[in-house]
Amino acid sequence: MSDALKNPEFLQWLCEQHSLERALKLFPDGMKAAAERGLRPLGDLPPGNSPLTHPAPVFDPSRFERDR
Fold it and tell me: At what angle do helices 8-17 and 28-39 cross, to 10 degrees?
């Protein structure tokens, strides 16, 4: 489990941000498991990338020039 979900206030805050307070009251274990799954990364990063890197969009001005 991540360190964030060890704090019950964080899970409460997370559910409040997404209007899921009622679901948290009815299914606390399910919501905790769902939050844990949602906070995990989808997969491994490509070699040479840190967790803080992300692919930046490449701006190519020639794509916006019209043929004259």
Answer: 80
The answer to whether the CB of 31 falls within 8 A of the CB of 23 is yes
* Helix intervals (H) in 1-68: 8-17, 21-26, 28-39
Report the alpha-carbon distance of residue 3 to residue 56 in Å, rounded: 29
Residue 64: burial class (beta carbons within 10 Å; 0-12, 13-18, 19+): exposed
pLDDT tens per residue across span 8-58 = 888 888 889 889 899 999 999 999 898 888 888 777 777 777 777 666 677
Q: Which tokens is 10 given?
A: 């964080």
Domain ranges of the chain: 1-42
What is the three-class DSSP state of 9? Answer: helix
